[in-house]
Structures are given as C-alpha cells and as structure tokens.
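Hi, here's the filled form for the chain we discussed.

Project: internal
Contact: R.S.
Residues: 524
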Amino acid sequence: MFITLSHINKLGETMEEMFWADQIVKRIVERNPNKKEYAIRAGLASSGIIHVGKFRELATVYLVNRAFEKLGKKVRFICYFDDYDRFRKVPENVPAEWEKYIGMPLSEIPDPWGCHDNYSEHFSKQFMNDVSFLGIKPEYHSETKNYKELKYKEEIKIALNSRKELIEILNKFRKEPLDNNWSPAEIYCERCKKDFTEIVEYNGEYTIKYKCECGYENTFDFSKTGIIKLKWRIEVPMKWRYYDIVFEPWGKDHISPGGSFDTAKEIAKVVFPCIPPEFVAYNQIKLKGQGVKMSSSLGNVLTVKDMLDIYLPEIFMYLYAGTKPNKEFSLPLDDDIIKTYDDFYLAERIYFGLEKASERNKAHWSRVYEMSISPPKQIPVQPNFTHCIELINIYRTPENALKSLNIIEEGDRRRYLQILKCAENWMEKYGQEHMFILLDSPKVKLDDKQKRVIEELVTFLRTEYTKEDLIKAFSDISKDNDISIKEFFKIVYLVLFNREKGPRLAQFIEAAEKEKIISILSKV
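And the returned structure, exactly as it came back:
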C-alpha cells in the first residue's frame, strides 16, 4: 500500500527519493522561483454526501500545503464547493420527490432534512465540520457566492466572445460536433430557477436575452445580475487564471487522452491565457471487502466522520499521506484495522528513534508520520487495538476501561480513551464477531460433566474470593473434572456468550455484574 520514498534532507536527493508531496512542491518552486504566494486548490461537488473518496482531493492539496509550509513558502490553500452547479439526479438517500428540483442550482434547493439553509449546505457544512477534526482549515469558497457577487463577470464576457474558439477546441475531442447554438454558459431562469434556457441574443458586452422552457423570457445585464454560470470545462481553466493556481489534483478518470484536463489545457492557451498548474492524478479509494467504487448516488459511502469513529485522526491521515495519490487503496474496516494501528505505531516509533530502520526508511516513515500529525515532543502511549477490544468487552464502556488502567499523564489518558472509543465503535459497526454480549438464557446443551463444571464454578462464585483465588479456581475445577483449562474456558464461554472464545474470564467476572453471571450459569 505504501510508497518507499525518502524524506528530503540537507544533503539533497534525487526527485525519486523525495516524499511525493515534496516532489510536487520542488517542481512548482523551480518553475515559479519568484512567487511571493503559491495558490493551490481543491474543488468539491456538494451534490450529495462528500465521502472519503472525494476527500482524497482535499487531503492531497492539504499535504502539498504542508510541504510548502515546510519550505517556509507562503501558500494560499483554497477549497471551493461547486454549489452553483445544477441538480442533475436524485441520490439514493434523498426523497424521490426532490426530482422536481432537477435543473436548479444546488444552493437553491431546500434541505430534505430541514437542518440547513439549502441542499448543498447540508453536505458542505457537515464535511467542513468533519475535516476540522483533522486540522484541515482551507480558505473555503462558495461558487454560488462568487457568481452572485459577479466576481467572474469579465471572464464570462471573455468566454461568450470566444464561443467559436471554444467550439473549435472542444470539437477536437468529441465524436459528435457541438451544434451552432452551443453556449459556454448556462443561465438560471429568474422565474423557475432552472437552467432549461436558451440564449436568444447577446450584445457582445454584458446584456443577454434568454428564454426558458417554462415560457419565461427576459433580458438582463450579467455585470449586475448573477444568474449566469460558465460550464464546467470552461470554468476550470478560467479559475486557473483567476486564482493564479499552481497546483490542483485531478481524478484519474479526467486525465485520459482527450479528457477534460486536455481540453482545459487547450482553453488555457487560447481563451484564458495562463500556464496550466502542476497536477497529480489521484486514484479511487475502496471500502475493504466491497471492491467497488464509492458513489453518493448509490449510497455506498463512508464519510470522514464515519472513519474518525474508528480511527484516530492521525492514523486516518497516515493512510492518505503514506499512499501516493495515483495509487488505489482500500480503507480497512475489517480485522485489518488492527494491522493499520500497528503500522502507524511502527512509523511513530521510527520517528522517535525507538525502532531500528535503515536511513532511507527512517527518513521516509518519519516524513509520513510528521505529515499525518503535528508531532508531540515525546512519543505518546500506543494502546494495542486488540487489547482495547478486550477491555471494552470486559468493562463494557471506554470510561470504565480507562479507570482500570494506571495511566497518569493526561495526554496519554486522552489518547487511550480515544482508541477505546474507536474500538467500541468498530466492534458495533464492523467487528461484531469480536463483541461478547451476555445471553439472557444459555443456548448450548451440556453433558453431565460440563454441567458439573458450571455448577462448581457457580458454587465458587457465591463465596468471598480474590482475583488470584478465582484464577486458581479455574485451574482446580479443570483438574477435578479431568478437562484442560482450554476446554474449561470453552464451556463457560458457550454458556455466557454462545461462543467458543471470549474476553479474559477473571477480569470479565470481576468487572461485570456477578449476580447476573451466576444467574445465567445457574440456568444450565
């Protein structure tokens, strides 16, 4: 999954040896050595849930932003929401009746859940809140606000007056040529708010006459009224010049020959003269076990918040930092989550010099680590995820589990509690086979010897004893009934959980409600 590159150091490395974000920044700075500020950008569609696959674009820009800061360069980290795009189709999780809003701007549609001012804001506000827990706080832009505040009026004029050139460029990459009525812009009708409109007349300046399928006609001045929007393929190179963008990532599906990136570069040469920004293609992210691409319209998505329920923020970011953007990877939701925690801990120990590694690996993993977290002064506690699962099974809540541990340092207590909560959430959502819940009534049928084992355990539990006495009793009961200690535990677990394995029994009995355990055992 992870790249094996080396962190940039004072001796200087070849480009291939540098961390991937440092490679990008080095190329940009070499190409633009005298820039006072470097503008980098991510764009996100807010037409549905902004899932962890879409987050990869923002994560990539964020990591490049950190690489710029490492070099002491001033950087403008921009993220805009395409909330002035038209509503194209109704996603799975949205009421079917929202079909009536197709053709309207996303920002003009009501929020189906009634908790935000509009449909787009419902998804964008949730996303902004989620990524804030990762320390990601870019300069957010609403394209609705930009268009309505007339920020792009001059660029719209250029595009309208370059219609013939744009048609010629786009036709190079099309099987069917655009018709003569094609326009580089869309107009939202002032009556029905939809884009089922057609430009009837344009005066070459700012005045447009249009008509809509709803029967409405009007003439407006787009230097005063923001109801016009450039189409996406035209909008992209326009923004390159408007913001002076030096870097942005592109989804892998957009950079194929003749794709939208190629058309954007052509338009940047002819219509909006600028140098196309440095880019990196990013690949998709899968949910481990599903093997399919996430899609908001299909509803098979996970959000950043969903992942932060089971991963520490720094471990979640580690997955993105440690994987080259052009490499596909899966987010572990199954038992591989345990290995992911262990892998991060290894990188953390390497960073703090507590694990042996070659100079190359030490440089690389240290760089991945510091891109995933603002490193503390000393290594934090590293709770084993499997152990945390067991503690939750024994003590039932993260807070009770933490009380059972002798941890004094407040920072370590916070991290331990976070991971205990992650373990609890993971078991409930994805790792039910690791969760042990007491049965009200046993489901297993026991033979006479097995019943005798349970009867002797119940008899012992009704006495006064210490934890050490209890552990010894397990051994004594096993020997008295001529069974192995492994078989003893299996019998008890089957009665309590209908499972052959379970949490450490002595600690579980000590932490649980003893009378309830006695009651369940007594029923066999």
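Let me know if anything looks off before we file it.
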